[in-house]
Amino acid sequence: MQLRYPATASDYRRLAERRLPRFLFDYIDGGASDELTLAANVADFAGVRLRQRVLVDVDRIDTAATLAGESCAMPLALAPVGMAGMMARRGEVQAVRAANAAGVPFTLSTVGICPLAEVAAASRAPFWFQLYMIRDRGVIAALLEQAWTAGCRTLVFTVDLPLPGMRHRDARNGVSAGGARAVLLRARQVLAHPGWIWNVALRGRPLRFGCLTEQVRDAHNLRAFWAWVNAQFDASVTWRDIEWVRSHWQGKLLLKGILDADDAHAAANAGADGIVVSNHGGRQLDSVASSISKLPAIVQAVGTRAEVLLDGGVRSGVDIFKALALGARGVLIGRPWVWALAGAGESGLRDLLATLRRELVLAMTLAGVTRIADINAQHLDRD
Question: Which of 224, 238, 262, 305 is most buried by a 10 A CB count?
Answer without folding.
Answer: 305
